[in-house]
């Protein structure tokens, strides 16, 4: 479960963002700006990120505050799962990233697989929609839903991408060090359950 301080900081930020989107009175605007700064202070103290970096992240968020969506492509081959090594931290993750405006979740999964692994793929079915706050990810300022989509390779070959410098398949008992901001060991265990039981229903968590 997500720590309470992180939940509170996100809720304060959401109230501030929504308030700034609709407030007309100058005093109300000042109060919402003060709330946003309070959430920045909380996150900076607990995550060790700089206040400036957090402010810049929040500055790009406007309008009614809603969760962000992260889409991950899940591919199995020979009882192993496809992972890519992230340049940012040197650890491994399912290919994926933020959902793009104008693309469906299916299209995002296929695009991210191509860009990060070199493989062309076809999206087959949704496996899970998980709320990051329930899954022991490192603290971050956003409320995030993660979508895991089963795909199959249709072409291409393993190749590094702009954000990745490794592509490999791993057995469940031989997983490398994972990029836990992107996916946890428990989430990959859930994905392997779908390999063993293709009829397993979609998980909503």
Description:
The chain is an alpha+beta fold and 205 residues long. The chain has two domains: 4-59; 68-204, Nucleoside Triphosphate Pyrophosphohydrolase (Alpha-Beta Complex), CATH 3.90.79. The chain is 37% helix and 27% strand. The chain has helices at 4-22, 26-47, 51-59, 105-117, 185-196; strands spanning 68-74, 76-77, 80-86, 92-93, 96-98, 119-131, 144-156, 164-170, 203-204. Strand 2 (76-77) and strand 3 (80-86) form a beta hairpin. Helix 1 (4-22) runs antiparallel to helix 2 and helix 2 (26-47) packs across helix 3 (51-59). One of its GO terms (molecular function) is hydrolase activity.
Please describe the structure with a list of short key phrases separated by commas or semicolons.
single chain; 205 residues; alpha+beta; Nucleoside Triphosphate Pyrophosphohydrolase; 2 domains; four-stranded antiparallel β-sheet; 9 strands; elongated
Task: Give the termini separation.
Answer: 12 Å
Q: What is the CATH class of the largest domain?
A: Alpha Beta
Strand content: 25-35%
SSE pattern = HHHEEEEEHEEEHE
Can you summarize this structure?
The protein has 205 residues and is of the alpha+beta class. The chain has 2 domains: 4-59; 68-204, Nucleoside Triphosphate Pyrophosphohydrolase (Alpha-Beta Complex), CATH 3.90.79.
Chain-wise SSE layout:
Blueprint: H1 4-22, H2 26-47, H3 51-59, E1 68-74, E2 76-77, E3 80-86, E4 92-93, E5 96-98, H4 105-117, E6 119-131, E7 144-156, E8 164-170, H5 185-196, E9 203-204
Parallel strand pairs: 1-7, 6-9
Antiparallel strand pairs: 1-5, 2-3, 3-4, 3-8, 6-7
Helix pairs in contact: 1-2, 2-3
């Amino acid at each position: 479960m997500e720590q309470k301080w992180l939940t509170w900081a996100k809720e304060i930020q959401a109230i501030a963002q929504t308030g700034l989107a609709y407030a007309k009175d100058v005093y109300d605007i000042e109060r919402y700006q003060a709330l946003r700064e309070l959430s920045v202070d909380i996150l900076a103290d607990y995550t060790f990120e700089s206040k400036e970096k957090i402010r810049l992240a929040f500055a790009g968020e406007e309008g009614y505050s809603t969760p962000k969506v992260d889409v991950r492509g899940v591919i199995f081959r020979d009882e192993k799962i496809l992972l890519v090594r992230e340049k940012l931290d040197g650890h491994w993750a399912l290919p994926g990233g933020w959902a793009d405006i104008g693309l469906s979740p299916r299209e995002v999964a296929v695009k991210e697989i191509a860009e990060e692994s070199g493989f062309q793929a076809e999206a087959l079915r949704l496996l899970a929609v998980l709320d990051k706050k329930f899954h022991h990810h490192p603290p971050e300022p956003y409320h995030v839903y993660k979508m895991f989509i089963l795909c199959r390779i249709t072409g291409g070959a393993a190749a590094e991408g702009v954000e990745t410098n490794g592509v490999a398949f791993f057995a469940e008992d031989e997983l490398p060090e994972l990029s836990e901001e992107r996916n946890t060991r428990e989430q990959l265990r859930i994905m392997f359950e779908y390999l063993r039981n293709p009829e397993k229903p979609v998980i909503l968590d």
